[in-house]
Known about the structure:
Layout: H1 2-14, E1 31-39, E2 49-58, E3 61-71, H2 80-86, H3 99-110, E4 115-117, H4 120-135, E5 143-145, H5 146-157, H6 167-174, H7 185-201
Parallel strand pairs: 1-4, 4-5
Antiparallel strand pairs: 1-2, 2-3
Helix pairs in contact: 5-7
InterPro entries: Ribonucl_H, RNaseH-like_sf, RNaseH_sf
Organism: Marinospirillum alkaliphilum DSM 21637
Protein name: DNA polymerase-3 subunit epsilon
Amino acid sequence: MVLKTIRTATDRWTHKDGEFAYMFEPYEGDEVVALDCEMTSLDPQKAELVSIAAVKIKGTQVLTSDKLDIKLQKPESLTGDSIKVHRIRGVDLLGGEVLGDALRQLLEFVGNRPIMGYYINYDITVLNRFIRPRFGFSLPNRTIELSNCYLDKVQRANPELVPDLQFETIAGKLGVPMVGQRHTALGDAITTALMYVRLLKGPVPA
């Protein structure tokens, strides 16, 4: 955490007059961005991006019309094992976005809003491996971990409980339907957004 704070302060100074200076400004609005990425590996130091999706949440409303959904050019590390998870084949990525262009779209879409997701630090770690060499900084945004929000809400009412934090289990306990097929970036981003809103305004999960 200390290293991230120092790095962000250094990046803020370096980019204070640059194109992305606004990324480092304190966010004062009421929007959050739900983010999900599909990748070729569970190792954040080796994973390559296959697709990126994000949707904005304003207050307690999921803005499904204000979303980002990008498929990338086929990465070299796309294998049968990763295809079994996200079901995105090489042929599905024909005409996909160049990585640098996709990352720029992501930065412009997210801005300086907080980023929320399920195991979001994994996605951020992978994204920063590709963002920093191209743009000279890592994502400075505040992050919100969905599973922690769920855990906190459950344990405030029932301190002795240790809830199951699997994605599907949380969705089921919150009564949130899975949007699209599991392990598609846009479907998971919207489902995550719906779960977050349910935690904000709904009762304690049973």
